[in-house]
Amino acid sequence: MHIALDKTKEEMLDEIPVADKIRASLLSDDGPYSELLKFYKDYEHANWNEISRFSKKYGVSCETINYAYIMSVKWCNGLIDEC
After folding, report:
1. What confidence tens digit (pLDDT) does each residue in 7-47 have?
2. What is the span of the domain harbouring residue 74?
3. Neighbouring residues of 75: CB distance < 8 A, sequence distance ≥ 6
4. Of the four, 5, 9, 28, 34, which is 20 to 30 A from 19 by CA?
């Protein structure tokens, strides 16, 4: 999003309220949510080996991950339909 707005991540985050832990994770690889953000990026880019590694590490089946993704897309589409 920051690229579309022609801003750095830091500039964009200065303009919106974001909790410190989330900000740290968005701006670095060692924030408390950085691994989860990496997971989202890996899923978005179909890095299935990394998704499988995450799945095994946290004991979440790939089927559960896929189901959660499909449900989140349906939820998002429902929000769009309401607009």
Report:
1. 788 888 888 888 999 989 988 888 899 999 999 899 999 99
2. 9-82
3. none
4. 5
